[in-house]
Structures are given as C-alpha cells and as structure tokens.
Amino acid sequence: MRRPSLRKAALISLMTYGQPEVGTQTVAIVETSAGDIRLAALALLASRAEWSQQLLQAVKSGRIGANTVPRDMVERMRQHEPKQLQSMLAELYPVKPATGVTDFIAKIADVEAKLKAGTGNPYAGEPIYMERCAPCHKLFFKGGKIGPELTAYQRDNLGTMLISVVNPNIEIREGFQYFSVTTNDGRSLSGFLVERDAQILVLRGLEGEDITLRQADIRLLTPMGRSLMPEGLLDGMEPQQLRDLFAYLRISQPISK
User: What predicted TM-score, i.e. pTM, was given to this entire model?
Assistant: First the structure.
C-alpha cells in the first residue's frame, strides 16, 4: 500500500487531467477516506467543473455530508462557470451575509468569559489542537505548514489570540494572503503564493501540496482579501474544551513527543 503522502500527491497530480471517470472514482475516495487523503480528494474534485458537479450530486443525495466540505473547496467551485453547477451551489451552500463587527466582539467576549470561568488542561487540549489546528499550523514540532507557525506567535497574549482565532481575516500575516487562481484549461485553485516570478507561480492550498503553474497558463489570479483560515473554528466546542485547547495553545514548551 502506498504511503499516505504519496497517495495525496498522486491525487493532486490528477488535476491536470479532465476525464469524467476521475471524478467518479474520487467521489468514492471522499466517501471512504479521512484526513489528508480526503482533503486532497476534495481539492481534486473542486478543481474542475464536471468533477465539482459530481461532488455536489453526492452531497445532494446524502452520500457526503454538506458540512464536511470545507468552505475553501466550496469557494473554489464557485469559480466555475456552468449554470447548473452554480445552481446546485446556491441550493446546497447559499451565500451567508458577512458577519458584522458587533457580532465578532460579542463572540470574543463570550469565549473569553468561558476561558476565565475555569482552568484548562493542556494534555486534554492537545488532541483538540491536532484535530482543529494542526492540519495547517505548527506549534513546536507538531502540525502542518499551510498557515503561519505558532511557536513564536504572541501566545501569552489572550486578547491577541482570541482576535486571530475568532476573526482570522482582521489581520492577515504577510505571505499568507489568500488567492484564487483560474487556469486556461479550466482548473479552479486557491491558496497563498509560495513563489512567484515572471515564469512560474507556486500555490499552496488547504490540502498542503505545492502546485506549480506556468504564468502563461493562468487566466485569472485574484486576491480574495481574506485568510485561508476559516471562521467558526471554535463553533460547537464545550466550555471545558475551549479551556483545554487554549491551555495547550499557550504552553511554553512541548508537553509530549
């Protein structure tokens, strides 16, 4: 059996092909896989209009949960032009009104009150971090390389941390601005720019793989004005889970290997 990293890279490499059967087989992978493999399969499906429609049909039929498709993948699918695809997106993922400043202030105040109501356990918070944060961020030696590393971040400042987590778009760190890319062969991609010169562009998206594109193959490159980190990261968490997660996020040294 191939290592997960090789399987993930193989899925991303299939973006350059356009055969319908790729979509059919990849939908099956989404249904039966988890973690990085599932995310790579979703990125593959979102990259082309026909495959995106196959994914949405699986969501509509209930084979794939609508809330298990990350917002970033939904936004990639919105870049495709077919009206039938856009109609399905409007039905399954209606555009929500932007959250106001007052709502964010209230959310931050609510989370802060819950954090101060008790003590968190960093050991209990570690698995929560690994599930919700580590796919993108590294803290000490654990986590991914999609978003900024947290080790040197101002983790002792609770106010700064809460703003960054609850409203990740308020301040986007340099080098992590989110871009949408449409290619001449119909692919829809997104992520931040790892490298860019007159000849090539290297994009790293939520799936964590670097995709190299020739500048001549890019039809549209659009800054999205927001972070790759989704809003609502803390939604659904119990007060003790919040305290445990932030206790782990604020550790001064690694607590496990």
Answer: 0.77
